[in-house]
Amino acid sequence: MTNLIKYASLRGERLCFFSLLMILFILVSCNSQTIKYVSIKSQKTTAPPAIFLNGSIINSLNKKWIFSFYFDRSMKYKNSLFEVASLTSLLNKYNLNEEVNSILLLCADDYQGIISFDDIKRYDLQLALRIKLSKEQAQPDWLQPLLIIVPNNVKPPLLERFLTANIKELRFVSLPNYYAPIESLKLTSDVSKAGLKTFKDNCIFCHSINNVGGNKGGSLVDKYALSLDREKQRFTEVFLKKHGIDNEEKQNTKQFLTNNSLDAVLKFLQDITIK
Questions:
Q1: Within this chain, do residues 38 and 89 fall inside the same structural domain, yes or no?
Q2: Whole-number Å distance between alpha carbons of 108 and 112
Q3: Which domain holds residue 269?
Q4: Same-domain check for residues 193 and 129
Q5: pTM for the whole thing?
Q6: Cα separation of 71 and 99, whole Å?
Q7: pLDDT value at position 61?
Q8: Quick one: CA dihedral 61, 64, 69, 72, positive or negative?
Q9: 71-106 pLDDT, tens per residue?
């Protein structure tokens, strides 16, 4: 009987010892996970649905003043100066899932731009918070911060989307999802496909297609019956007058388009009108 009591007592001590070890293991594991989580969260935060000009994230970015030959060349200005923050630094503030690869730029005047993360990193794109133009330069109404700026150390192709201005809201999006409604048109002509690419780079920000893009200039397929030759001629004449050199709005879109690319855009619009 005595031996039985001793055995029970020894067994109970062992159970208590292993229970204490288990509790200590759980506490250490939980503490380690908590420290790791806090460390990650202290570096980055989950991206919000939208980022605004007066938001704390924008205000927290490092800023500097720079010139942009890219901007001055396209606007025919000289010595324009911008207070900018790095868009790469903005991206580094967030934990972004793998599907998100672009920033949608929603503007105050129903203009809508979009830039990919690849472009941001390749061309070191900046976000201008303030603009200082030379006194002799006329500033159109649309030329307001926020503004995409190309710094002088890189030379991207001259495209409308790298001059998006009057930005009021930024959103993280998936480029394939964003363009899906127009990619679903399933163009068969190589010329039309080239026209779609040019349209996405330069036109869709003002002229939406299938509810993709901005609507500052309205839908071109609604404004023109492009299956008719006289309407294609009218489109070209209006384009050259509205977006040609030295127009009042300083929207010289002709500098982004060759004659061949403009013909391709017309072919693209004609094909989707027929569809």
A1: no
A2: 9
A3: 178-274
A4: no
A5: 0.77
A6: 31
A7: 92
A8: positive
A9: 999 888 999 999 999 999 999 988 888 889 999 999
